[in-house]
TrEMBL record:
Belongs to the aldehyde dehydrogenase family. The active site is at E255. Residues 24-477 form the Aldehyde dehydrogenase domain. Pfam families: Aldedh. Keywords: Oxidoreductase. It comes from the Bacteria. The keyword Oxidoreductase applies. This is NAD-dependent succinate-semialdehyde dehydrogenase. The lineage of its organism: Bacteria, Pseudomonadati, Pseudomonadota, Gammaproteobacteria, Chromatiales.
Length: 483
């Protein structure tokens, strides 16, 4: 940790009301690449979460009343600080999460890009005037911030999942309390340090770090002061938290698990498809909710495609994310490795074949070898559950109708990808896929100017884009009479 240029970015306490708060006990933050304890962070309680909410609640009226241009300036200052400290923030992120340093720095730039995007959008919260029924009335629509926003975020993007929620919330005029994943609190706390330096007022951005997710989650989902709850994480936890929010009728946004198909048609540019698949499948060691989960290849090109895929996988370098030229870091913890082991075991017992990888680099290691699995079908758990690991699981299909049916045969609907050079097919398949995001000859779809989000049990709400502010705004109708 001594390698940080600015050691003050390493924080170990929760942050609310513009101040750092210790707790009676601490929890360890572990580097998944080495098993080393890299920090001990204050283990906040449910009572602490209530204090953070009180701070956000107190800060709300003044923040909402600030002119949008002023909020935008502060968000932009925050964004600049993220970029100025990109190397340190990237290093912290790699140390607590494991992804290669280049990817971690990329995530910081990606998170910062949401701050910039919503700083710009803050100034464009337009209303409407609507023709009234009678001449002595006028109908006007204005948009106002919903109020205090609470968020719970996962460990796979410790910076960006917070940045894209907080950016939209703060731009809209809301105040914000986040509970980051306990595995990766350091990136969240470094963001708080930079929010403070940027001059974001006390109580506007607050971070509560703790191991009792259930107790803190209970407060964030049930306290009347929270107007809106935003969650990114697993489908089961999301469903539970949405239920908890129902008691106080909160606005809710959920970004839950995916089960992305990646379809390769026989008219595809196979090399381009390989490039897209490698990015979509192996980024973050396969631990993203938009990662390809099922590779669907048309039978006539299956052999050619899997040969190329095996070659590309063979070139991936596995290692500690802080080492040079590493493509894949460790999985986040032992449970993640066990899950991949179990999915592969079940798949091979049902007839699937491992061509390369298929196990950890060494017993007890969190480094999982990049794996090519063929002979998969949709009934296998490896095709039904999120793998969240570096396994390309290939199945085959005969024609377009079968590809679409297979792709849609899941309760998830986050991201899907397909490769084809036939313009008619591109339109047909893009429209037929029941997903919130579709990459057409493209394996990377995330972008602050585009709406990120899913359909079906992958959740609701959109992050980023011109639509992203709507999740944090109420529509108010004013009827002016007696004119
Ligand atoms: P993942 O599989 O990515 O770890 P989780 O849904 O378990 O997904 O975790 C995402 C976030 O949800 C984390 O911040 C975690 O601490 C939090 N979380 C998990 N269980 C609960 C719960 N019962 N109440 C509130 N938050 C929870």
């Amino acid at each position: 940790m001594t390698k940080l240029q600015d050691q003050r970015l390493l924080k170990n306490a929760s942050y609310w009301q513009g101040e750092w708060h210790n707790a009676d006990t601490c929890f360890d933050v572990i580097n998944p690449a080495t098993g080393d304890v890299i920090a001990q962070v204050a283990d906040a309680s449910a009572a602490d979460a209530e204090k953070a909410l009180a701070a956000a609640d107190n800060a709300f009226p003044a923040w909402a009343a600030r002119p949008a241009a002023e909020r935008a300036d502060l968000l932009q200052r925050w964004q600049q600080l993220l970029l100025e400290h990109q190397d340190d923030l990237g290093l912290l992120l790699t140390l607590e999460q494991g992804k290669p340093l280049a990817e971690a720095k990329g995530e910081i730039a990606y998170g910062a890009s949401y701050l910039q995007w919503f700083a710009e959008e803050a100034k464009r919260v337009y209303g409407d005037t609507i023709p009234a029924k009678s001449g002595d009335q006028r109908i006007i629509v204005i948009k106002q911030p919903v109020g205090v926003v609470a968020a719970v975020t996962p460990w796979n993007f410790p910076n960006a999942m917070i940045a894209r929620k907080a950016a939209a919330a703060l731009a809209a005029g809301c105040t914000f309390v986040v509970k980051p994943a306990q595995l990766t609190p350091l990136s969240a706390l470094a963001m708080a340090e930079l929010a403070q330096r940027a001059g974001i007022p006390a109580g506007v951005f607050n971070v509560v770090t703790g191991t009792d997710a259930k107790a803190i989650g209970n407060v964030l989902t049930q306290d009347k002061r929270v107007a809106k709850f935003s969650f990114t994480g697993s489908t089961n936890v999301g469903k539970q938290l949405a239920k908890q929010c129902a008691g106080t009728v909160k606005r809710v946004s959920l970004e839950l698990g995916g089960n992305a198909p990646f379809i390769v048609f026989d008219d595809a540019d196979l090399d381009a498809a390989i490039d897209g698949l490698m990015a979509s499948k192996f980024r973050n060691a396969g631990q993203t909710c938009v990662c390809t989960n099922r590779v669907l290849v048309q039978k006539s090109v299956q052999q050619a495609f899997t040969d190329k895929l095996q070659q590309a996988i063979g070139k991936l370098k596995l290692g500690n994310g802080t080492d040079e030229n590493v493509d894949i870091g460790p999985l986040i913890n032992n449970d993640a490795c066990d899950k991949v082991d179990e999915l592969l075991k079940q798949a091979t017992e049902s007839g699937a074949k491992v061509h390369c990888g298929g196990k950890r680099q060494a017993a007890d290691s969190l480094f999982y070898l990049p794996t090519l699995l063929t002979g998969v079908n949709n009934n296998m758990a490896v095709a039904q559950e999120e793998i969240f690991g570096p396994v390309a699981a290939v199945q085959s299909f005969d024609d377009e109708a079968e590809a679409i049916a297979l792709a849609n045969a899941t309760e998830s609907g986050l991201a899907a990808y397909f490769y084809s050079r036939d313009i008619g097919r591109c339109w047909r398949v893009a429209e037929a896929l029941h997903y919130g995001m579709v990459g057409v000859n493209e394996g990377m779809v995330s972008n602050p100017s585009a709406p990120f989000g899913g359909v079906k049990q992958s959740g609701y709400g959109r992050e980023g884009s011109k639509y992203g502010l709507d999740d944090y705004l109420d529509i108010k109708y004013l009827c002016l009479g007696g004119l």
